[in-house]
UniProtKB/TrEMBL annotation:
Keywords: Signal. The keyword Signal applies. This is DUF3570 domain-containing protein. It comes from the Bacteria. It holds the Pfam family DUF3570. It comes from Rheinheimera maricola.
Length: 429
């Protein structure tokens, strides 16, 4: 819930892992028919969130083109997370979302909750096999658990080959059911953040805090549909085109995020818990090309996403694998991302204006651009095993979408850049 803008670390790392699964296990062992990949990722934002993640995948060959895929992901997140409240030219005090404890933010600083921490464990399993000549099916599921979030999911796909297996059409379906149980419960829409110092004693504070809570937990259901077309253009060129649809229904508000209410001078009068719609429909188009160019390999892709929150995004990603002798290779990467703001994104609320039905000051759904610049180094080892290292820098730049900052807000940073460094080690055998 806290870090969906962490460039989807789990998905990206799992994809990198799967790319290495073509290596065969050493013959003559009890694991002849299994392929394994392991990876460790470290992610660190300047003065904000740090993450450490480990991934282990296994692919078993049971003959007749039947395969079992297993996966384990463990990650730990710590650091400071932006609350959504605006900076002020004076010290601000905040209550933690649990209602227990408080913290102060220095003058001019972006309010960050510095006690953010979480650990997540995810298990995946799937089975794939032929269904008939030129037909292939797969099915599986996942379970993911963190401190205040549980996700259960099922997925399946069917693929049909045409044109002497040079053309493949596929259809995939996935369903997930998530339960959100934040510490302290779920706040009512636009409930005020209360401060212990404003109450005569702890009992009166606790009673007032309980009155701002609506329920202990809530759920969200998501259905994803993927239509894909893969085409072999020639012996050196493979192209893929996908359309995906995602329909979510349920609790999609971030229970930890605030939105500040300011007066005509830009001074905060109170901080309210945000509120988002309980439905979201997303569409995306994805186009990828893999080319062999004079001994090098180019992987270029583009994705366009749009939804009924009026948020749209463009993502371009280019990787170019270059050989360095017989054993080593280097793969530079550049990724660019740009998105518009959701229709209910507001960096703050004006005191003299009515509160809208929905509002969020979470910069992750605001107007922004971001880029990733990195490189991967890999080598072939004995028995076909592979070892690789990746280092990358990520910078995210929130942007003003035409909002005029009144009074003191003109003198503080409302759209602070986020810079992160990522390091990854992968080993396949």
């Amino acid at each position: 819930m806290q870090l969906k803008q962490l460039v989807n670390i789990s998905a990206a790392l799992a994809a990198a892992s799967c790319a290495l699964l073509g290596q065969q296990a050493q013959a003559g062992t009890v694991l002849d028919d299994w392929q394994f990949n392991s990876a460790i990722l470290l992610y660190n934002e300047t003065d904000r969130v740090s993450a450490a993640e480990g991934v282990f995948t296994a692919r078993g060959d049971f003959g007749d083109d039947k395969f079992l895929n297993l996966g384990l992901v463990v990650d730990a997140l710590t650091g400071a997370s932006a609350t959504g409240a605006v900076a002020q030219p004076y010290v601000q005090s905040f209550t933690r979302p649990s209602g227990r404890g408080s913290y102060d933010v220095a003058a001019g600083d972006t309010p960050l909750d510095d006690t953010f921490h979480d650990t997540r464990v995810q298990l995946d399993a799937s089975w794939e096999q032929p269904l008939a000549p030129n037909w292939r099916v797969s099915g599986g599921g996942h379970v993911s658990k963190e401190y205040d979030y549980l996700s259960l999911g099922l997925n399946g796909s069917v693929a049909r080959d045409f044109n002497q297996k040079n053309t493949t059409v596929s259809l995939g379906l996935a369903y997930s059911h998530d339960t959100i149980s934040p510490e302290g419960g779920i706040a009512s829409a636009f409930a005020p953040m209360l401060l212990r110092r404003d109450f005569a004693d702890d009992d009166s504070y606790q009673a007032a805090f309980a009155a701002t809570r609506d329920r202990a937990d809530d759920t969200k259901d998501t259905l994803d549909v993927l239509l894909g077309l893969t085409q072999v253009i020639n012996r050196d060129w493979l192209m893929q085109f996908n359309y995906s649809l995602s329909v979510a229904d349920g609790y999609m508000t971030d229970p930890f995020k605030l939105v500040s209410v300011v007066n005509s001078n830009g001074v905060v009068q109170q901080n309210l818990y945000e509120s988002r719609p309980d439905k979201r429909t997303k569409h995306s188009l994805f186009w990828q090309n893999k080319l062999h160019l004079s001994g090098t390999f180019l992987d270029a892709s583009y994705r366009y996403m749009w939804d009924d929150w009026e948020l749209s995004s463009h993502t371009a990603d280019v990787k170019w694998r270059l050989p360095m002798g017989e054993q080593w290779y280097v793969e530079p990467q550049f990724r660019y991302y740009q998105q518009s703001a959701a229709e209910f994104y507001l960096p703050f609320l004006q005191q003299d204006e009515p509160i809208p039905q929905f509002a969020s000051a979470d910069y992750r759904i605001g107007k922004m651009s971001a880029y990733t610049l990195g490189a991967k180094f890999g080598t072939k080892l004995a028995a076909g095993n592979e070892l690789s290292f990746r280092i990358a820098m990520y910078q995210q730049t929130p942007e003003n979408d035409g909002v005029v900052a009144p009074g003191v807000l003109a003198g503080v940073e409302l759209y602070e850049k986020v810079t992160a460094v990522m390091a990854q080690v992968s080993y396949s055998f």
